[in-house]
Amino acid sequence: DPGKIPAAPNDPLYSLVSAYEADTSADTVDLGVGAYRDENAKPWILPTVRKAKAILEKDPRHDHEYLPIAGLPTFNSAAQSLILGADSVAIKENRVCSFQTISGTGAVHLGALLISKFAPRPSPDVYISSPSWPIHDQVFTNVGLPVKHYPYFRKDTKTFDVSGMTQTLNSAPKGSIVVLHACAHNPTGVDPTSDEWIEIAKIMKANELFPFFDCAYQGFATGYLSQDNFAVRYFVEQGFQIAIAQSFAKNLGLYGERAGAFHFVASPSSNASSTTNRVASQLSILQRSEISSPPIYGAQIASIILNDPQLLSEWETDLLTMSGRIKKMRKCLKEELDRLQTPGTWDHIVNQIGMFSFTGLSPAHVHELREKWHVYMAETGRISVAGLNDHNVAYFARAVDNVVRR
Ligand code: PMP
């Protein structure tokens, strides 16, 4: 009876976008949605993407046909090499299968669906960082998997809570799934160091936990694609079986084109490639009944770039443009707050990495920033640093200074 369906709350971040768009003040600052903005707060089409679009337009084979169920083969293979490394033994040993998905969200969903269908009963717990991208909880819960949380962030020091996380993983039941942010953790902007990743891997190995990597920001942490996949590569080298959700929304600026991939890596064994083939056959069934075949345009753009060494290196330059401007804005914001002698410590703004800063501002501060200063940011105190620029950073610092002093 649809009459009995209760009303669900609006998505907080999309509601924030609507509120921002409806605000007619000249001073509005949008620090909500995690999308790169240029110096003038405008969306940025990457120069490499412009080139790829021109190449595609001129290609006489360019059409709008259906892709195969698993997606564009040249995209899948290049996406696989990008996250695992072109020299990956798992690829050489045919232990990896890849499906093009509806961006990163679709990849998380496809993996979650596979687990919900084939994991032993009772279903394993899915451990998600606290805090995390809020949609993780939603996606795993929606396919009927029980969600638990592991501590990730120390509010007092605004750093990674290594002991909290490792203690929880130590006591997690064998066979549990652990969702790991491959790099540039959303929302905290705080990642484990390589030594901490090694420790996490050791505990997960000993406790037979299953890593599910979410990689939405490759190229945004260090600025280099081949450094930002350290954790994934390390876990593969350690012989784990792994699920990976990969998004090209942020790093190629292809947000609305929904280009992403789900990869499954079987652990090394004599029948690993047969396991991978069987998993791929089941993913085909799931993909067919969910979306039939994935969208073509974004995957074609990504494929042109990923398969051309010259464009690939130009893309790395674009990534440095984005990550460089974000870093510069972190520094400017910190300098402004220092200059105003804003109460509190603000080192975390420059120490955190990736697209976001977890400012530590309270929901009351966030509310006042919106009502009084027309600054739009997530309730959690997370800001998308790319929303700052030379024109608004001093204004935002003044606004923060004002609300924290009250
Ligand atoms: N995972 C994380 C951690 C994210 O932050 C995002 C985007 N906000 C995604 C996945 C998925 O993004 P998309 O579906 O746009 O690729």
Question: Which key phrases capture this entry?
Answer:
Aspartate Aminotransferase, domain 1, alpha/beta, 13 strands, 406 residues, Aspartate Aminotransferase, domain 2, 7-stranded mixed beta sheet, two-stranded parallel ribbon, 15 helices, NHTrfase_class1_PyrdxlP-BS, binds 4'-deoxy-4'-aminopyridoxal-5'-phosphate
Give your account of this protein's structure.
This protein has helices at 12-22, 47-58, 73-84, 89-92, 103-118, 135-142, 162-170, 194-206, 230-237, 272-290, 297-306, 309-339, 347-351, 363-373, 393-405, and strands at residues 29-30, 96-102, 126-130, 147-151, 153-154, 159-160, 177-181, 210-215, 242-247, 259-265, 356-358, 375-376, 382-384. Helix content is 45%, strand content 14%. By secondary structure, the chain is of the alpha/beta class. It has two domains: 10-45 and 323-405, Aspartate Aminotransferase, domain 1, CATH 3.90.1150.10; 66-307, Aspartate Aminotransferase, domain 2, CATH 3.40.640.10. Helix 5 (103-118) packs parallel to helix 6 (135-142), helix 7 (162-170) runs parallel beside helix 8 (194-206) and helix 12 crosses helix 15 (393-405). 45% of the residues are buried. The strands form four sheets. The chain has a seven-stranded mixed sheet, sandwiched between helices. The model has no long low-confidence stretch (mean pLDDT 96). The chain contains 15 helices and 13 strands. The structure holds 4'-deoxy-4'-aminopyridoxal-5'-phosphate (PMP). 4'-deoxy-4'-aminopyridoxal-5'-phosphate is lined by residues 34, 103-105, 133, 181, 186, 214, 216, 247, 249, 255, 260.
